[in-house]
Specification:
Chain lengths: 183, 413
């Protein structure tokens, strides 16, 4: 259920062990060489994608950065969609929540995490290449500012939420490529 | 690309420090335990705060999900259970069954460990597993669509003369038994699982049952039904060779699994009330206080069916329930793990609608369970006050390892 790169798993396990051993006051970071690439150390847990018959949908999870320096995700690709975007959700002038492509990518703080969740930041899948059905798996590749990449798979789940409007001009709901899905 | 400073990044809504994530709540703590593997399971979901006063809390107690057998069978029965039966949608094919069982297994593995399911919209309801178990069973249609070998006994039970079966409590293709010592945990788990079955199935029936609350009586105490009787005294003890032999299948995709019978037995409390205490004990063949056979002193004494009273009549009547239930054939043994139900009365003039969700596990339903029920249907004093109104049979697949899923022995071949 936890999807990580192998090295990421080890890093997370070490971090968790340190915490369990009562060393929480120490930085829970393996001695990261300065030359370490983001794609080799960043992990994602609890990744999932909202099911959709066509159009757009979104992916979620928790990105973690065990290094002592910030890392930035600059793009996302997936074979499940013609285009992938990094989105944030913000309030528009009327106070309504809208989602839009984020400036500058997702920055995961040093020794910290970055949550992708319904109503917040998310991986946006534009123009699905095929219906995404519950229980399928979707492969993602994230590219970081240092040009390194990491790949992971996420299960597709039925989900009635994550219906924020898209501020790309016309208003559309995620999950069906159209207006209210009526679920 | 605009560089984003750490201060700005940390003020964003999606940003949490590692420590916040790991210490930010019970759920995160349990998540860390889960990531470490199963060695911490079986103990506690979360670091429990020492209670300043009041009884020790048991909300964090965990029954390990992964293993050779599914949990919720040999597990000491929890206080609350909901049994769900689902009907597969016409387009739910083998591939869809695989996708569904992966999702449901993931939900169950997380929730039983006190961790919210993926896409759990009420994660706070997931943090008190309270010995939660989730057990999956497959009906005939499921196994057929999966293309697996159908056990000879996986079919509706023969029609018994005493049956008054109602469709709303009968049959189904996929069974989910959710049990825990906390009803809120049961409700959330059921909700989460059913949301993930929606694309694949529709609900056939749902039955909710209860036993003694957690810590009311010692673990292992035989439950009492709403007739006041101890119910299940003849059960083999989980973990013994006897139990293993009675319950677990050892062949094919069902190796490590079992067969399950679910019967809804209406118990007529109003006519039972007309019976005096002696008559009640005569009907069952046991005393009401200790549950001892009328020929014995304590609950687990073997009944002496040859014993005669002063007038030469058998002490345990020829048609008393325990005599009829116990066959000559030692192969006819089952393991019972039922629950009481007590729902609002639906018929005019009645004050109760109560009974037993009879649940039994046995390796072979046809040779172990059916002969007992046939005998009871023919003659059993208890039939005067009880009526079966629901019936279903399921094959319970074995458990799975971490990373696997329940049903893989059927769906991955």
């Amino acid at each position: 259920m936890t999807i990580k790169t192998q090295r990421g798993t080890i890093a997370a396990s070490i971090a968790a062990l340190l915490l369990l051993a009562g060393c929480a006051s120490e930085p829970a970071t393996p001695s990261a060489a300065p030359t370490q690439q983001a794609g080799d150390v960043v992990t994602i847990t609890d990744a999932w994608v909202k099911a959709a018959p066509e159009g757009m949908t979104a992916g979620f999870g928790v990105l973690e950065n065990p290094t002592g320096e910030d890392v930035t995700v600059v793009s996302v690709q997936t074979p499940a969609a013609k285009a992938g975007e990094l989105h944030e959700t913000v309030a528009d002038d009327s106070g309504a929540k809208v989602m839009r492509q984020i400036d500058g990518g997702f920055t995961i703080p040093a020794d910290g995490a970055f949550k992708l969740e319904p109503g917040g930041n998310h991986l946006m899948l534009m123009d699905l290449t095929a219906p995404l059905k519950a229980g399928q798996k979707v492969t993602f590749t994230l590219t970081f500012s240092d040009k390194s990449t990491m790949s992971f798979t996420a299960p597709v789940k039925d989900y009635s939420g994550a219906n924020e409007n898209y501020s790309g001009g016309e208003h559309m709901d995620m999950g069906d490529g159209g207006m209210d899905e009526g679920k | 690309m605009k560089p984003v400073g750490i201060a700005a990044a940390q003020s964003g809504p999606g940003v949490a420090t590692r420590r916040q994530l790991l210490f930010g709540g019970v759920a995160a703590g349990a998540g860390a335990a889960l990531a470490l593997g199963s060695e911490r399971l079986g103990t506690h979901a979360a670091e429990t705060q020492p209670a300043l006063r009041g009884p020790p809390l048991h909300g964090g107690e965990i029954v390990p999900f992964h293993g050779e057998h599914q949990a919720g069978i040999g597990t000491d029965a929890q206080a609350h259970a909901t049994v769900i039966s689902l009907v597969l949608r016409p387009d739910t094919d083998r591939d869809a069954l695989r996708r569904m069982m992966r999702l449901l297994t993931d939900d169950a593995a997380r929730l039983t460990a006190g961790v919210p399911a993926l896409a759990d919209s009420e994660p706070e309801l997931a943090t008190n597993p309270a010995n939660l178990t989730v057990t999956f069973g497959f009906g005939l249609e499921f196994v057929t669509r999966a293309g697996g070998a159908v056990p000879s006994w996986l079919a509706p039970l023969p029609a018994f003369s005493i049956d008054r079966l109602r469709p709303e409590f009968t049959g189904g293709d996929l069974m989910i038994q959710v049990a825990a010592d906390d009803p809120l945990t049961v409700a959330h788990t059921v909700r989460m699982l059913l949301k993930d079955t929606r694309s694949f199935t529709g609900v056939a029936w749902v039955q909710q049952g209860f036993r003694y609350a957690h810590a009311t009586v010692a673990p292992g105490t035989t439950m009492r039904n709403l007739f006041g009787q101890v119910d299940g005294s003849a059960n083999p003890l989980p973990g013994t060779d006897e139990f293993d032999k009675i319950v677990w299948c050892d062949d094919g995709w069902l190796a490590g699994g079992t067969g399950m019978v679910v019967r809804r037995i209406e118990m007529n409390l109003d006519t039972w009330d007309e019976l005096d205490r002696e008559g009640r004990e005569f009907a069952i063949g046991r005393t009401l206080d200790t549950g001892a056979p009328l020929t014995g002193k304590s609950e687990h004494d073997d009944p002496d069916f040859t014993a005669k009273g002063p007038l030469g009549f058998p002490v345990i009547d020829d048609i008393a329930h325990i005599r009829r239930a116990r066959g000559e054939d030692p192969a006819q043994r089952i393991f019972r793990r039922g629950y009481n139900y007590d729902v609002p009365p639906s018929r005019a003039g009645e004050v109760s609608d109560a009974g037993l969700i009879f649940i039994s596990f046995q390796a072979d339903v046809a040779t172990q369970y059916t002969p007992i029920q046939e005998r009871l249907a023919k003659v059993d004093l208890l039939n005067v006050w009880t009526t079966p109104v629901g019936s279903a049979v399921f094959a319970i697949p074995p458990g799975c390892r971490k990373g696997g899923y329940v049903g893989e022995t059927l769906l991955e071949v």
